[in-house]
Amino acid sequence: MNKGLSLKQKAYEFIKNKIITCELMPGSDIAEDELALELGSSRTPVREAILRLEQEKLVNIYPRKGSFVAQITLKDIQEIFQIREIVETQVAKIVCESISQERLLYFKEQFEKMDAQGKNILDKEFFELDLQFHKFIVTSSNNQYLIEFINKIYDKDYRIRVLTTSMFEEERKRNKKEHLDIINAFLQKDEEKVESYLREHIKNSRSGALKIL
Protein backbone atom coordinates (compact mmCIF):
# COMPACT_ATOMS: atom_id res chain seq x y z
CA MET A 1 0.00 0.00 0.00
CA ASN A 2 1.47 3.33 -1.01
CA LYS A 3 1.66 6.34 1.29
CA GLY A 4 -1.14 8.21 -0.46
CA LEU A 5 -3.57 5.32 -0.19
CA SER A 6 -2.63 4.80 3.46
CA LEU A 7 -3.37 8.44 4.26
CA LYS A 8 -6.70 8.23 2.43
CA GLN A 9 -7.70 5.21 4.52
CA LYS A 10 -6.52 6.91 7.70
CA ALA A 11 -8.68 9.95 6.96
CA TYR A 12 -11.68 7.73 6.24
CA GLU A 13 -11.35 5.77 9.49
CA PHE A 14 -10.67 8.93 11.49
CA ILE A 15 -13.73 10.83 10.26
CA LYS A 16 -16.00 7.79 10.33
CA ASN A 17 -15.11 7.13 13.96
CA LYS A 18 -15.95 10.71 14.88
CA ILE A 19 -19.35 10.30 13.22
CA ILE A 20 -20.16 6.88 14.67
CA THR A 21 -19.23 7.87 18.22
CA CYS A 22 -21.16 11.13 17.80
CA GLU A 23 -18.11 13.28 18.41
CA LEU A 24 -19.46 14.81 15.21
CA MET A 25 -23.17 15.04 15.99
CA PRO A 26 -25.91 14.42 13.41
CA GLY A 27 -26.51 17.57 11.37
CA SER A 28 -23.20 19.16 12.31
CA ASP A 29 -20.97 20.86 9.76
CA ILE A 30 -17.88 18.93 8.69
CA ALA A 31 -14.96 21.37 8.75
CA GLU A 32 -12.46 20.02 6.22
CA ASP A 33 -9.68 22.41 7.28
CA GLU A 34 -9.93 21.42 10.94
CA LEU A 35 -9.97 17.71 10.15
CA ALA A 36 -6.97 18.08 7.82
CA LEU A 37 -5.12 19.89 10.60
CA GLU A 38 -5.91 17.13 13.10
CA LEU A 39 -4.72 14.53 10.61
CA GLY A 40 -1.65 16.53 9.63
CA SER A 41 -2.59 16.22 5.98
CA SER A 42 -3.87 18.28 3.06
CA ARG A 43 -7.60 18.59 2.42
CA THR A 44 -7.48 16.05 -0.43
CA PRO A 45 -7.67 12.82 1.65
CA VAL A 46 -10.31 14.46 3.85
CA ARG A 47 -12.46 15.29 0.82
CA GLU A 48 -12.04 11.77 -0.55
CA ALA A 49 -13.03 10.31 2.81
CA ILE A 50 -16.13 12.52 2.94
CA LEU A 51 -17.17 11.36 -0.53
CA ARG A 52 -16.80 7.74 0.56
CA LEU A 53 -18.82 8.40 3.73
CA GLU A 54 -21.53 10.01 1.63
CA GLN A 55 -21.85 6.75 -0.29
CA GLU A 56 -22.34 4.99 3.05
CA LYS A 57 -25.08 7.51 3.94
CA LEU A 58 -23.17 8.84 6.94
CA VAL A 59 -22.59 12.23 5.31
CA ASN A 60 -24.73 14.57 3.22
CA ILE A 61 -23.03 16.91 0.72
CA TYR A 62 -24.86 20.02 -0.47
CA PRO A 63 -23.39 22.07 -3.35
CA ARG A 64 -22.27 25.57 -2.26
CA LYS A 65 -23.28 24.77 1.34
CA GLY A 66 -20.82 22.12 2.44
CA SER A 67 -20.77 18.67 4.04
CA PHE A 68 -22.85 17.67 7.04
CA VAL A 69 -23.16 14.59 9.24
CA ALA A 70 -26.30 12.70 8.24
CA GLN A 71 -29.26 12.99 10.59
CA ILE A 72 -30.81 9.96 12.28
CA THR A 73 -34.52 9.62 11.59
CA LEU A 74 -37.25 7.36 12.94
CA LYS A 75 -37.25 5.66 9.53
CA ASP A 76 -33.50 4.97 9.89
CA ILE A 77 -34.08 3.28 13.23
CA GLN A 78 -36.96 1.18 11.93
CA GLU A 79 -35.03 0.04 8.86
CA ILE A 80 -31.73 -0.67 10.61
CA PHE A 81 -33.35 -2.76 13.31
CA GLN A 82 -35.50 -4.51 10.73
CA ILE A 83 -32.35 -5.58 8.88
CA ARG A 84 -30.74 -6.71 12.12
CA GLU A 85 -33.79 -8.76 13.08
CA ILE A 86 -33.93 -10.49 9.69
CA VAL A 87 -30.20 -11.12 9.29
CA GLU A 88 -29.02 -11.85 12.82
CA THR A 89 -31.80 -14.29 13.73
CA GLN A 90 -31.24 -16.34 10.58
CA VAL A 91 -27.46 -16.35 10.94
CA ALA A 92 -27.81 -17.36 14.59
CA LYS A 93 -29.84 -20.40 13.58
CA ILE A 94 -27.32 -21.34 10.90
CA VAL A 95 -24.28 -21.13 13.22
CA CYS A 96 -25.99 -22.57 16.29
CA GLU A 97 -24.28 -25.96 15.98
CA SER A 98 -20.82 -24.71 15.03
CA ILE A 99 -20.38 -21.47 16.98
CA SER A 100 -17.37 -21.44 19.32
CA GLN A 101 -18.33 -22.63 22.79
CA GLU A 102 -15.13 -21.15 24.18
CA ARG A 103 -15.99 -17.67 22.90
CA LEU A 104 -19.56 -18.03 24.17
CA LEU A 105 -18.25 -18.76 27.65
CA TYR A 106 -15.98 -15.72 27.39
CA PHE A 107 -18.92 -13.47 26.55
CA LYS A 108 -21.02 -15.08 29.27
CA GLU A 109 -18.33 -14.22 31.81
CA GLN A 110 -18.09 -10.63 30.55
CA PHE A 111 -21.84 -10.02 30.70
CA GLU A 112 -22.07 -11.59 34.14
CA LYS A 113 -19.50 -9.05 35.35
CA MET A 114 -21.84 -6.20 34.45
CA ASP A 115 -22.91 -4.33 37.59
CA ALA A 116 -20.80 -6.65 39.71
CA GLN A 117 -20.84 -5.52 43.34
CA GLY A 118 -23.16 -2.68 42.42
CA LYS A 119 -20.60 -0.95 40.20
CA ASN A 120 -21.90 0.11 36.77
CA ILE A 121 -19.63 -0.26 33.80
CA LEU A 122 -19.25 2.76 31.54
CA ASP A 123 -21.74 3.03 28.69
CA LYS A 124 -18.88 2.93 26.18
CA GLU A 125 -17.62 -0.34 27.63
CA PHE A 126 -21.11 -1.79 27.42
CA PHE A 127 -21.56 -0.65 23.81
CA GLU A 128 -18.26 -2.25 22.85
CA LEU A 129 -19.08 -5.57 24.56
CA ASP A 130 -22.55 -5.61 23.03
CA LEU A 131 -21.16 -4.87 19.56
CA GLN A 132 -18.42 -7.48 19.88
CA PHE A 133 -20.98 -10.13 20.79
CA HIS A 134 -23.31 -9.40 17.88
CA LYS A 135 -20.39 -9.24 15.45
CA PHE A 136 -19.17 -12.57 16.85
CA ILE A 137 -22.49 -14.20 15.92
CA VAL A 138 -22.33 -12.93 12.33
CA THR A 139 -18.61 -13.58 11.80
CA SER A 140 -19.21 -17.17 12.92
CA SER A 141 -20.91 -17.64 9.55
CA ASN A 142 -17.53 -17.18 7.78
CA ASN A 143 -19.45 -15.42 4.99
CA GLN A 144 -17.28 -12.44 4.06
CA TYR A 145 -19.95 -10.72 1.94
CA LEU A 146 -22.44 -10.96 4.78
CA ILE A 147 -19.90 -9.75 7.34
CA GLU A 148 -18.97 -6.74 5.21
CA PHE A 149 -22.63 -5.85 4.74
CA ILE A 150 -23.65 -6.18 8.40
CA ASN A 151 -20.62 -4.22 9.62
CA LYS A 152 -21.96 -1.19 7.75
CA ILE A 153 -25.28 -1.69 9.50
CA TYR A 154 -23.52 -1.94 12.86
CA ASP A 155 -21.76 1.37 12.18
CA LYS A 156 -25.15 3.05 11.86
CA ASP A 157 -26.57 1.07 14.77
CA TYR A 158 -23.73 2.16 17.06
CA ARG A 159 -24.48 5.80 16.33
CA ILE A 160 -28.13 5.26 17.23
CA ARG A 161 -27.17 3.64 20.51
CA VAL A 162 -24.85 6.45 21.53
CA LEU A 163 -27.62 8.98 20.94
CA THR A 164 -30.57 7.07 22.36
CA THR A 165 -29.43 4.65 25.04
CA SER A 166 -29.96 5.68 28.65
CA MET A 167 -28.47 2.98 30.80
CA PHE A 168 -30.83 3.11 33.74
CA GLU A 169 -30.51 0.25 36.22
CA GLU A 170 -33.70 -1.46 35.06
CA GLU A 171 -32.67 -1.29 31.40
CA ARG A 172 -29.17 -2.52 32.18
CA LYS A 173 -30.52 -5.54 34.04
CA ARG A 174 -32.90 -6.35 31.21
CA ASN A 175 -30.16 -6.05 28.61
CA LYS A 176 -27.82 -8.21 30.64
CA LYS A 177 -30.47 -10.92 31.06
CA GLU A 178 -31.31 -10.87 27.35
CA HIS A 179 -27.68 -11.42 26.36
CA LEU A 180 -27.24 -14.22 28.88
CA ASP A 181 -30.43 -15.91 27.66
CA ILE A 182 -29.10 -15.82 24.09
CA ILE A 183 -25.70 -17.17 25.15
CA ASN A 184 -27.22 -19.98 27.23
CA ALA A 185 -29.48 -20.97 24.33
CA PHE A 186 -26.39 -21.14 22.08
CA LEU A 187 -24.59 -23.28 24.65
CA GLN A 188 -27.59 -25.62 24.66
CA LYS A 189 -27.55 -25.61 20.83
CA ASP A 190 -31.26 -24.80 20.89
CA GLU A 191 -32.00 -23.06 17.58
CA GLU A 192 -35.58 -22.11 18.45
CA LYS A 193 -34.59 -20.46 21.73
CA VAL A 194 -31.65 -18.69 20.12
CA GLU A 195 -33.89 -17.21 17.45
CA SER A 196 -36.65 -16.29 19.92
CA TYR A 197 -34.37 -14.64 22.49
CA LEU A 198 -32.35 -12.77 19.86
CA ARG A 199 -35.47 -11.49 18.11
CA GLU A 200 -36.93 -10.29 21.42
CA HIS A 201 -33.65 -8.54 22.30
CA ILE A 202 -33.47 -6.69 18.97
CA LYS A 203 -37.14 -5.65 19.20
CA ASN A 204 -36.63 -4.33 22.74
CA SER A 205 -33.56 -2.40 21.63
CA ARG A 206 -35.52 -0.85 18.77
CA SER A 207 -38.40 0.11 21.08
CA GLY A 208 -35.98 1.73 23.50
CA ALA A 209 -34.33 3.77 20.74
CA LEU A 210 -37.65 4.94 19.32
CA LYS A 211 -38.88 6.11 22.73
CA ILE A 212 -35.86 8.34 23.30
CA LEU A 213 -35.27 9.82 19.84
Characterise this structure.
This protein has 213 residues and is mainly alpha-helical. It folds into two domains: 3-69, Winged helix-like DNA-binding domain superfamily/Winged helix DNA-binding domain (Arc Repressor Mutant, subunit A), CATH 1.10.10.10; 74-212, GntR ligand-binding domain-like (Four Helix Bundle (Hemerythrin (Met), subunit A), Up-down Bundle), CATH 1.20.120. Helix content is 71%, strand content 4%. It has nine helices and two strands, in the order H-H-H-E-E-H-H-H-H-H-H. A two-stranded antiparallel sheet has the order 1-2. Strand 1 and strand 2 form a beta hairpin. Helix 2 (32-39) packs across helix 3 (43-55) and helix 4 (74-95) runs antiparallel to helix 9 (191-212). It is elongated. The relative contact order is 0.13. The mean pLDDT is 90.
